[in-house]
Amino acid sequence: MNFWECLKTAVKSLQGNKIRSFLTMLGIIIGITSVITMSAIGQGAQQNIMGDLKQGGYGKFTVSVDKSDTEFRWKYMLNDEIIEGMKRSGKFRNVSPRIQTRFMVKINGRNEMLMASPTNKDFEEIDKVNMLYGRNILSFEYDLREKVATIDHLTAGNLFGSPENAVGQTLDIAPGRNTSYIAYRIVGVFKNPLEQMIKIMGGRRIPRFVRIPVSTYDKMFTKTPGEYTEIIVEAQDPEKLAESMSDARLVLEDLTGTADLYEVTTVSNAAESFDNILSQLNMFVSFVAAISLLVGGIGVMNIMLVSVIERTKEVGIRKAIGATNSDILIQFLMEAVILTGFGGVFGIALGVSLGLGIGGFLGIPPVFSPIYIFGSMLVSTIIGVVFGVTPARKAANLNPVDALRTE
What we know:
six-stranded mixed beta barrel, 18% strand
């Protein structure tokens, strides 16, 4: 028998036992579906989280004063002159003060404590946000110290009913509980960068954010405008971060004569570490799901062994009319590969459908990796070969006389 005759015989044999063939494939279908669905949701969640975190940390570093000595810290504060000097050097893409503080906001008698980031044009490039409604703060609004603000969509929904309604509304902001409020006009609403990460990590309280021009912040909330404890720098080439950090030390030495007294630290380490943790967690979950493939393969072997016992007389007849041991071996091996191959196809289709459905329900865009899809198909085929060999060899080695005597 040639290859095509063996294939036709295998297909006809499987068609003659459709229910048993489907049940045999079920283990492979479940295994492939699990791998495709869990890897797609896992990678989607990872990209969703890391997209926001890496955008804020990749290729950036901070310069801060030494915090160990209070007197020294205030003596060598970073200021606007140093920032302008670093910009003039042409060695960095963006340089900006980095201010992390908290504001009390009030609207309709309700108070909320928000994370505040006084920003300028450079900071908006360094730490970009995804604007959902309205716009970002414009250049002339920074220059004219306009009292405008952008807030995250969770805060907007909480305070104004929906993010769309927040644009154009007024937000009363104060630096502390017992200080005067100043009215800011909301010009835009951006996506909260930590929402997905905290939800996936099981956290309940998600930090809320507000951004106002740093010029307005300096004028209204600080005693020493133009002085900062930390600035953030974006390298010209993110791939050459270490070289850019060395350049910063040299520029600081030229500008202040005290470069060794400033701390230059990358801000991407935390994001990269979290990315590594998510990658390992995703691989572990996919590995656990892949164990069901092994169980499915064992199921295929068991059913095929039962099939050999039930078809012993059929094998004896075929051998009596001239079929060789190789013909029988190839036929049963093909049946196993066809079962696992079709199981893989159905599993991929079901996994993609479930991934889209679950991702839509959770609000996480699934990411279907070609490596996982083609890898699953290859693994299912290999399982058919590996677990089909034993029953195929058992059928091929049957004695034709003994097989014909079987009832």
